[in-house]
Amino acid sequence: MARLFARNETLVATILLLFIIVTSIVDPSFLSVPTLFDLLRNGLIMAIFAIGVLLVLISGGIDVSFTALAAFAMYATTKTLVETGVEGSMALALAMSGGIGLCLGLVNGFFVGTMRLPTLIVTLGTLSAFRGALLTFVGSQLISNVPDGMRDFSRTMLLRGTNADGYFYSLPAAVLVLLLVVVLTWFILYRTMLGRNIFAIGGSLDSARRIGIPVTKVQYFIYAYVGTISGIAGIVHASLARVANPFDIVGLELSVIAAVVLGGARLQGGTGTITGTLLGVALIVVINNSLITLGIPSTWQNIVIGLLILLGTGVPAWQARRSGRTE
Amino acid sequence: MNDRSREAHDAPSVVALDHISKSFAGVRALDDVSLAIRPGEVVCLAGENGSGKSTLIKALSGAQPAESGTVSFHGQPQAQISPIGAVRAGVQVIYQDFSLFPNLTVAENIAFNDRLARGTRWIDWREMRRTAEAALGRIGVDIPLDAVVEDLPVASKQLVAIARALVDEARLIVMDEPTAALTEREVKHLLGIISRLKERGIAVLFVSHKLAEVFSVCERVVVLRNGRLVAEGPVDEFDPASLTHHMTGREIDAAPVVSADAPRGSDLLQVRHLSREGAFSDVSLDLAAGESLGIVGLLGSGRSELAKALFGMDPASSGTIRIEGEEARIDSISDAMERGIAYVPEDRLTEGLFLTQSIGANIAAGSFRRLAGTFGLVRKSDIRDEADGWVERLSIATPSSDLPVSSLSGGNQQRVMLARWLATTPRILILNGPTVGVDVGSKADIHRTIADLAAEGLGVIVISDDLPEVLACCNRIMVMRDGRIVDERRNDDVTENELSHLLSSDAEDA
Known about the structure:
The complex is a heterodimer of chains A (327) and B (510).
Chain A: H1 2-26, H2 33-58, H3 66-84, H4 90-114, H5 119-138, H6 148-155, E1 157-162, E2 168-172, H7 174-191, H8 193-203, H9 205-210, H10 215-241, H11 253-262, H12 274-293, H13 300-326
Antiparallel strand pairs in A: 1-2
Helix pairs in contact in A: 1-12, 1-13, 2-7, 2-10, 2-11, 2-12, 3-4, 3-5, 3-10, 4-5, 4-10, 6-10, 7-8, 8-10, 11-12, 11-13, 12-13
Chain B: H1 3-8, E1 15-24, E2 27-37, E3 42-46, H2 53-61, E4 68-73, E5 76-78, H3 83-88, E6 91-94, H4 106-118, H5 125-138, H6 154-167, E7 172-176, H7 184-199, E8 203-208, H8 211-217, E9 220-225, E10 228-234, H9 240-248, E11 267-276, E12 280-288, E13 292-296, H10 303-310, E14 318-323, E15 326-328, H11 333-338, E16 341-344, H12 348-351, H13 359-364, H14 368-371, H15 380-393, H16 410-422, E17 428-432, H17 440-455, E18 459-464, H18 467-473, E19 476-481, E20 484-490, H19 496-503
């Protein structure tokens, strides 16, 4: 299975490369630093979400509520900061939004961990409840004068310059947030007992309970962690857009889950890698952009992504079944 | 009852259960059971399904603590037992399903309990490999450390589970039905490992209802029936008959339930030169109504493939099948069903039953076409009548046919499967391993049912590697080896030993 799984990642990487090559042949300027940074900027939020989703999928669960949670945390944070007049730094906004996300994640944790309800049902419920609560109790007006801290953050660049063709490029500091999330999540998954417990729960919930893994605690952690990450993704999104739109973000959840599954995570739980997840996100972002470059109508994006999911997850599963039968 | 054994050895018992009781929904699963296990002792816990064996294991592993009575580890009474506490006291349970993590590597699975018990927070992959290597070395087996467990064959998974149990200075290893999924050779290997454990002073509580294993590996036998400890003593005080008697509470006759001279009806099935590449070749057989034919063979002899070919699951590539003298093409399951062939698969859990559905729905599942009335609708009351009829006829032990199949013991589940096929009113019934995972009492009942069915005029084919089984319930026995039929005997013309010899491929050299 290890080799097969590697094949899944290789498959995604190959398709990704193929798209890049074809698009570069049609439009030579595609293969450039400005495009790369554009793609990074476009895929940033999705990638942060995807890392959170990966964690849930590894544990054998599924979370569809993270977008509602992100929108709630992002909008509540921005509104509070604006109304209290605390222009503050980005760090404060990140901490607040992450904190709200954490609390909402604990709600999921309660239903999944303590009440032992199926994760899809729980998160479908909270998706709707969080979104409704946001629009009912917090507000439904667009906030376009985001606090200075957030606006400044969107202007902070790690790198900027102009390439030989005269195209301007810049790399937003928000990339650091993704980097931090990736490194932290990698560390948790592969260097801590907590992370191995997450894998174990995804592999066999019954076995995990039997050998004494504190399953409930681990589940609380998973959903709280995903909540925090989502809250952070939400506020980063709002500051890059320089607008807090309560109707934003929700609706993204299925494409994020698709990216993670495309990257090799199994819906049955127990498997998935960060590399695969990032490749999956990259593929979806590249497809979206290259189809535009290739002059293919954007409605085709969904068809192509759908086919890729069928191909990327279907082919390895089909191969596994066939080899299992003949051996 | 324990006093004698306790006095005999000064060393405190690894585990002592003292007047343990436990109820589930008002039903006494364990009733005042006391049991002590000394270091290095191999104790067999025997009992039929539902006798309380699993409850006893869960009580001593802390998975489901008992309601009353005390559990002591190494002479120390434990106030409350948790799974981790039991592991720290050296009590390791290898469950029937091994409780491994299929998605993790061999090394990580082996080291997992140890890391958990020590309360490790950080992961040291190199240390983990060393731990795993040492544990595998202790039982003298070689399994690639980086292999993912779900890719391993069953026997290797079990070895991984044993290695995992050994990591933490295990003092008592409980093995729940360890041989259920193993071939004969693998069982021998396992029994070898158990004696090695014994030499190291590790006690083993061996849970089984296979009598042969009980006698070959255990020193002491403890028998549970209906939650009570009904017999205990050194293994040489028991023989298969007395053990069976204690387990079932009744006398079970091992004598054949069918006679080789049973009257044969008209020819039902004629198979000539049936072959399927890589599975079996040139198989010819005849089956008459009222006859039950046994086909024995080891794993890989082609016995299951032959059954599947006759049922159209994996059709044969050449040869002819005649049913009641008429040539029949059987290329699919529906072909086979149309010709009145029914097949009860070997692994009823994965191949047949809808575990969470009711007993009634499972029984009726094959007969909807017959039960359907106008507009193809099926009346609920018809299903219930049909189901209740079969529950009574096959004496399936359940208060109601509305309960899910998962609430039944293995033997009763097998009967539900049988009922489903009988409800389709077949003429030829193929049973593959009809009593795999079924306890002694139910086994005898199933054998009687098979004999009754044949007496009613059905043609029955029993495919099995359980030799006493085919000797008991088949008039004729065909021996399959390497995809061919190599011998055919009447059941009064062959002994178990002879059959066993005919089965193994080195018989020709002897």
